[in-house]
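Teaching note: in complex prediction, the entire set of molecules is handled at once rather than each chain in isolation. The prompt given to students was simply: 'Predict the structure of this complex.' The entities are:
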Amino acid sequence: MQVDDKETLEYQSVQVLKGVGQAVAEKLERLEIYNIQDVLFHLPMRYEDRTKITALGALQPGQPVLVEGIIEHSEIKFMGRGRRSLLCYLSDNTGGIVLRFFHFSKAQQARLANGTRLRCFGEARRGAARLEIIHPEYQVVQQSDETVEQSLTPVYPKTEGVHQTLLKKLSDQVLKKISRGELVDWLPAAVAEKYRFPDLVSALLRVHRPDKDENVFALNQCSSKAQQRLLFEELLAHQLSLLQSRLATKQTTAKKLTIDEDDHARFLRQLPFQLTAAQHRVIGEILADLEQSHPMLRLVQGDVGSGKTVVAAAAARAVIDGGYQFALMAPTEILAEQHFSNFKQWFGEERCLMLSGKDKGKKREQKLERIASGNSQIIIGTHALFQDDVAFSSLVLLVVDEQHRFGVHQRLALREKGRFMAGREDIVPHQLIMTATPIPRSLAMTAYADLDYSVIDELPKGRKPVTTVVVSTGRRDDVIARIEKACENGEQAYWVCTLVEESEFLQCQAAEVTAAQLSKELGGVRVGLVHGRMKQEQKQSVVERFKNCEIDLLVATTVIEVGVDVPNASLMVIENAERLGLAQLHQLRGRVGRGGKQSACVLMYQAPLSEMGKQRLGILRQTNDGFKVAEKDLELRGPGEVLGTRQTGLMQMRIADIVRDEKWFPEVKKTASYIISHHPQAVKPLVRRWLGKADRFANV
Ligand code: ADP
Ligand code: MG
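The expected output is the structure of the full assembly:
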């Protein structure tokens, strides 16, 4: 089955399709669509039923539906801070709903005049008085005579400038081409037979254009045979790609270290605490890896506060005693600073160096020189460690902290950067990835099948679980009183501000306003403020003052999410908690409960809280266990959101869902090894088909 790429249909450029010129092709690239095959495997993410109109009186929240009615009345409501929304009251002879627009033009407003008949599609939610649809798709219709769609509507993932109609037109053309049978089916016949899968072409036809009488609900669960076949193949492709990547890594060479037991014990003795058994075990696993001549690729997962930093330090000790360099990359400057100050204590100031984006000019040059000469052995930094002019002299171990903030690309780029020649050997650094984002085991074994995996599943002794309460902003006064009381007792507190606005500027502004207000409300309490737009030194000095108990209440944006370590702080208030992800809330909450005191976390929400919101915040109230939080969050929101990988490309699945489709994993694993040994020629095309460009990372 050897085929030349250029010859086959699937690798022809999208530009052979009608309606695709240079400009459209460029837009399609944003969806990673380059060739015919990419169009074919750009699969609907869900389906909509626009084949029937639902009566307004029968509407249920949470389901996208087609409705029709007459506009009774429209008005503009002002919502404070200069924001307004347009409300249209729509009714039919069974009931009524509100259409709400946050963005609207004059022309649009004019078109939505009283008496207009509108057909809308959208999802109803509970509003203040009745059900609302926010920003529905709508069209003006004359009488109720216009026809509805005759088949189910596939909804494709889209991007700016690429709309559903275009994607539908393109897939129409491509589906015609493949029905002539020019597409290679790489799934071995034995496998398809075993699971009774339909052939590739019929599966694709059905998934892109399901029959009208297929059940939309079932389709949206991906439970049809055609969908199952495709998602199986996708999971398989990911598995193959990870196995390839792992294999490629294992074939490179890393520095083999000799671990001296006595030196290690001496390092542990100088610590102000005893390691937990879990820390001991994980350090042992890491040191054993470092004694190998192929690179370590290990993920260390440990809940917030489980003590990951010292685990990294124990490994660093072995590296620098051997005369080599150790680098630690953190996602924020505050966190990098925190690590830097810890490492200076453990290893002495002269061996350590911190590089951040803020270093400029002469100072930066001097630092780069110390890195390149090997003068500094412990290098701590942010993304700044990536920049082109940073060259290490002998990087043997690279630690990436809080990995969910970094994409795979960055991780691999850094690994490349660390390559150096030792004599005639090309050396790749060992890599350790540390994350507090709890990764359920099943996920760890698939999304990270290229990594070995260690868990610190124990917290240091004496930690008391944080008591979490969920209250509405209506009870703000009680919360204020609680802070006052805590501070009177010599405790310290955090107040975390969040905003819907993406803009960091607005977030910081809101934090400033809140800090001023709280300082007025809380007479005797010393209030400090830290946010992302402050200078690094300013931030650092505020955090320092908080540490030294010169500040009682620290108002902050989510910049404090990771890395701030003040054991005396025992109360945390999080505003608008319903807007944050559970993992993020859990991470924030981990800032308290670090000392021996009973700590509390107050999750404040803006009423009304949706059913989903209630469930999600309820999870945090019920458990302090990061694993449980993550598992629930995964169920509720899906892996892309939870792992923060949506933007990074890792595990961006077209049709499979690692939580929903978990039952397939054992079969996928078996099939992957079967293909590698019996049909090796299918590996590359399968990976390329499903991972497209993403597969370039697998071969670094
Ligand atoms: P995380 O896993 O969240 O990165 P850190 O490494 O920041 O946790 O550790 C949290 C705090 O716990 C730090 O103050 C650290 O010094 C302390 N710590 C770490 N290990 C232990 C231990 N075995 N016993 C007591 N305190 C510890
Ligand atoms: Mg940490």
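Point out the following to students. The mean pLDDT is 85. The chain is about 40% helix and 20% strand.
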